[in-house]
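Example 3.2
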Amino acid sequence: METANIIPYLLSGISLALTAVASPGPFQAYLISQTLKNGWRQTLIASLSPLISDGPIILLTLLVLTRVPEIFLRGIQIVGGALLLYFAWRTWRAYQGFDSSSLLNREPGSQNLKEAALVNALSPGPWIFWSLIAGPILLEGWRISPWFGFAFLLGFYATMVLGLATFILILGTARELGSKFTHMLLGVSTVILLFFGLYQIYTGIFS
């Protein structure tokens, strides 16, 4: 195995992860709402959620690469959209009943991890990403050498976890700017969750 040949797969994983972290979507909207409600310390563990949710997604998409039935992705979109609407409603309740002391009522970090993994698994993005973009790169590298495939996964998930953790820490800093600012951002995150929820349901039914 030549080290020079493995570097492109490592860099591919890093660059794709940076793109995924920076792209707005349902998962990022969920992280925003949870960080604002519970603080960065309780939400930080959610940065590990792709390590939980992506395993089954990768296995399924690689087994049937580019052959995932359209009805399957539509079902994922509709169920994920309904889940986002539930989180939008929950965030709206936090917005309506907001006061400074409510910042002390935090959900356990383990719940944030489970919910974040569920949101990620029920978003169409990871399924499309692994079936059309990352999956072929992983298979190509794995066929050359399992180490190439491992380098791609290492670069991707190390960057993904660190990127999500940084995103949560930045949001946590915004939360510390004061209760009024946090209250406003809770309202904004409610609208974002509502938009993505309705959008996923709409595209799942009519696309």
